[in-house]
Amino acid sequence: MLKNALNIAIRNLKANPLFTFLNMASMVIGLLVIYIAFSYLRFEKSYDTFHEDSELLYRVGRTLRQQDYAVVGFSNWNNSNALEQKAQINGIKAVAGIDNAAQFYIANEPEYLTYGEVRLTQEKILSTNTPAGFTELFSWKLLAGNFNTFKDVQNTMLINASTAYKLLGNTNYDALIDKPVTLGEETFSVAAVIEDVPANSHFDFKVATHVPRIDYWGSHMYVKLLTQAQPDAVENRLNEAVLKIDPSLATNETYKRHFLQKVTDIHLKSNILYELKPPGNANYMYLIGVFGLLIILIALFNYANFTLALKTRQSRVIGVRKVLGASRVQIASQFLIEALVLVLLSLPILFVAIYITVPFFNEFMDVSLARNPLRDVQMIPVFLLITLTIGILASIAPALLISSKKTLTLFKEKLGAKSAGRFSMRRYLIISQFSILIGVSSVSYFMYRQIQFIEQKDLGFKKDGILFTYSNPDDLEAFQAQLKSIPEVETVGNGSAFGIETFNNVRYRLEGSTTIFEDANQFYLDYDAVKAYDLKTTLSPDIFQNSSNRIRRDLINKSAAERFAKLKGVAVNELIGTRVIMEPEYQNEDGNYGIPITIAGIYEDIHVFSLRERVAPYFITVSDNVRMGGLSIVAFNEEATEATLSKIKAVYDGMSNLYPLEIEFLDANFQELHARDKRTAKLVFILNGIAILLAGMGIVSITLLLIVGKTKEIGIRKVLGASELQILKLSVREYVGFVFLGLILSAPLSWLVAQNWLDNFAYRVALDIWVFPLVAILVFVLAALIVGTVSLKSAMTNPIKSLRTE
Q1: Residues 6+ apart with CB under 8 A from 663
Q2: What is the pTM of this model?
Q3: Helices H / strands E in the chain, number of each
Q4: What is the pLDDT of residues 47-88, one digit of tens each?
Q5: pLDDT, tens digit (0-9, with 9 covering 90-100), for 255-290
Q6: DSSP state of 247
Q7: Is 496 helix (H, G, I), strand (E, B) or coil?
Q8: pLDDT tens digit string along 151-169?
């Protein structure tokens, strides 16, 4: 019996190639989207689960002022020696409930990695003075060498496979083991080669070095808890131990606590200072998931509509089967089998589509989804279950509707001849499609507007034509002197880079006031940097021309000025000369507290960070003595970007340097702050396009259903003198109500979704109510064009042929 049902299903699919093609295309697109959406959600939630004891791994964080840090500072900060650093981590490791601990730091500055004649510009360099904990806590896959050498011998290193391949030119990684490799000015012995760190790790490194001392003010610290340990209790004991390790914290008013973060929660549930990777956004993740579900719903509605349209042509065949004894269950089962056959026949095409599409998605979203679903053992049963479920769901509506028809009705008239325009199932399906289409398109519009807003927002300083060079600090003066001789270079300055991630705030108060604030950021610029950024300040232009006037000055932004003016009850311009006490709890060598600065000028608010961050009080110390390591701020002629870059590199190459030159563009840095926002928005635009395509196909199917059911009606109207235009109007008219109901149903939910998206930004576009009816009008126009095009053929048919349909 099953074999007979399968033969009938295949015969029906072959007999109606157009409907089969449209149904299969709709199913393949819907399943492709749901596969990618499901895989993406799974990938985002899988971060750090590849570690063997991931459920027991925690990161130690620290709270200072009102900010949480992913870096735990050493007791003497940058001046902590190797013994002090080890004493701190060993003290934490000794806390009851903690099984193991490790600490490390990953440098952002590139260095030269040299092996024989090969020299690479190497980034993501990790250094640790707890190599045993580092290799025992985390599950790095060993390809060559051994971890014991790395644990036991200082000045050894781990290299990932990609870097090892660049050094060797082949995959014979054993050839690197115990060989000397120079990193910067130090030589290390290669202890092991490991697989590249998985993409779903919250931190990444290319090279890990075993050093006696971490050259930074703190470290990223991780612990593994004992199986039965309670994290809250361990955290309490950890805080008690920290005060014994560093008693000065007890009297430090800025210090609040230490805390534990589960490693598997970091990617989606943490966004604190000094994260090792930009964290994910759970809201964006679920948004993409919802869009995927909506698209598969459209595909399901399409199948129901296509099937209903097709079966109206086969009503007598179904009637004959009922006369011959087929039950309602058997008729419905046949629909189910046809749906499952169609879905299963779509799988090979789907796998090819996945194989082609996933690499583009991986690159676009910076993720690592499986390109071949057949190799993902865990995914295969889940995806097959999803596929079969979709096949079952797709068949429910037509199965219930058609199998319930009486036999006489099936013989008397083609299904829907009298009621195709009225039955509730069709209305439900089309209104649902319009609701989804209006909602998805409205949300996409607001996301597009916000991305445009980000790109066009005036940041309060010159964004274009500014680049940063990171060079050898020891040769900075000589390098900058040569930069100034390049014709395309307009200004070379020193100081803080803009277009960056947020960093630690400072505490401050007005002199004479007891109110302490701790929401300001401190920046440092020389006068040439102020000129390069084109900051709008109250300083006289003459100051920038006369070197004798370029003394140290402290500026505050407009937001800080307005706060201080309100606090003092004076006008903003009366603040000049007012003193501000920075870090009021800090005791100076003379016994006084705080670091006083005098307001010498005010500048307009600027967006140093992303537009997710609201502009807070910012202080800028302006002095020609400012130096920020090897950073140079270069203003150049935008029309000669390539020539400028070439000449800057030539200047640096002509100097003897131990460190590679790194160049960043300010506008690119600012764009990178919103990279995830833009990628998510673009993906939603693509999904919106797919939704429109599928909805268009669905409207075609519904129109075909209507035409099949109204063939006689159209013929009679033409005989009675109706014109083709009048018939088209009748076909389109009812869609006005459908679209209106779709608008009513979708507007509230899409408003909430758009609001949720925009809430990620402190500076955003307005959520205009008129957008929703406008989108509905555009959807109606699209539907009218499709319906009109499909209906035109029937309207132009000879009415005699229409009346012969029986």
Answers
A1: 467, 468, 469, 470, 645, 648, 649
A2: 0.87
A3: 25, 24
A4: 999 999 999 999 999 999 889 999 999 999 999 999 999 999
A5: 999 999 999 999 999 989 999 999 998 888 888 888
A6: G
A7: coil
A8: 999 999 999 999 999 999 9
